Amino acid sequence: MTHEQFEGEKNYRVSIAIAKIMLSKELINSKDYSKIDAMLINKYKPIIGGL
């Protein structure tokens, strides 16, 4: 894994963790979570996290 791939994976995982907390606190709904997940995958292109 290259440094850039590692950074993308790390940034995706941190961002999706925040989105999961927001979902659990009902600040967003599951539809919003799915949109956020798709946007983050597109932005960070995680190798493992997007599976």
Task: Give an overview in words.
The protein is mostly helical. It has one domain. It is built from two helices and no strands. It has helices spanning 3-24, 30-44. Helix 1 (3-24) packs antiparallel against helix 2 (30-44). The two termini are 16 Å apart. This is SHOCT-like domain-containing protein. Residues 1-51 form the SHOCT-like domain. InterPro entries: SHOCT_2. It comes from Clostridium scatologenes.
- Tally of structural domains: 1
Structural class, from secondary structure content?
A: mainly alpha
Largest sheet composition: none
Low-confidence stretches: none
Specify the overall morphology: elongated
Distance between the termini: 16 Å
Which key phrases capture this entry?
single chain, 51 residues, mainly alpha, 73% helix
What topology does this entry show?
Elements: H1 3-24, H2 30-44
Helix pairs in contact: 1-2
Quick overview:
By secondary structure, this protein is mostly helical. It is about 75% helix and about 0% strand.
